[in-house]
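Dear colleagues,

As part of the handover before I leave the project, I'm documenting each prediction I ran so the next person doesn't have to rerun anything. This entry is a single chain, and its sequence is reproduced below.
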Amino acid sequence: MSTILVTGAGGFIGGHLVKKLSESHEVRALDKKPLSSWYQITENVTNIVGDLTDYEVALKATENVDEVYHLACEMGGIGFIELNKILCMLSVIPDTNTIKAAHVNGVKKFLFASTACIYPKYKQHTVTPEPLMEDTAYPADPEDGYGWEKLFMERMCRHFSEDYGMDVRIVRYHNVFGPEGTWQGGREKAPAALCRKVIEAVKTQSNEIEIWGDGEQRRSFLYIDDAIEGTLRIMESPHQSPFNIGSDRMVSVNELVDIIENVAGVTVNRKYVSGPLGVRGRNSHNDKVKALLNWEPSISLEEGVLKTYTWIQSQYEQL
């Protein structure tokens, strides 16, 4: 039974990943947040509160570990990453500390959680962009701050493989959503934010929500269970090149609100306001991951939104 370290384990994807891995592995779950702030705490794993900006923490956490899933970073939805570029860039410190410590301690495999934000903005100016293929990251023009840091770390992984023979994996997530994650406070992504806004509109009887921009900006959204399955397949594969893990179904924000309204059984008024928008359109190209890993999403956007809305509603009612 392998010993696996998951960093960022108190976060959204990390919490779900720890839960899944604990079914068949010995897991160390690490996050800098106090345990009371973790989204999920899984039994029968070693939970560690530690800040990877301290190299000694990274060195100790990676001792006698077979595999590392490195998800720890500062991130959130577009509102967060556009207003916190320095904070996002500073993730380079825990990133470099963790991969260096993993190399020193002889970790067998290292997976880095990257993002679709590394893709060039010049390919995403319209609402009908070409799906983003893994080999189109260069010439580089990623999302400022967050995307640049992730792209830098992808190159760091590549060079650790070339120079030191480290067995690395890179997963580029496209808008993962679901329960047991951020749904308020400023770091939430569009599906969770819009679910909360509709719930609030119903509860307060305002029947109105705010939408940034015109609502025609388009994205693909991937449910968390599919993201976890894709992540595991990447780690288990022999391939060290990056893979997209995302849905290839692109919808507008307005269409996403339609789906949420159907789940809630309501119709709300939409107030369009200025706010951070990111690129105009983004979609995942999945031919590579389908061909090499036999992976594709199995949970529809409608089903995922239903599960997410139901969970956020239960959290809202506990406030």
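The CA atoms of residues 120 and 141 lie 4 Å apart. Residues 146-164 form the longest helix (19 residues).

All the best with the project,
I.
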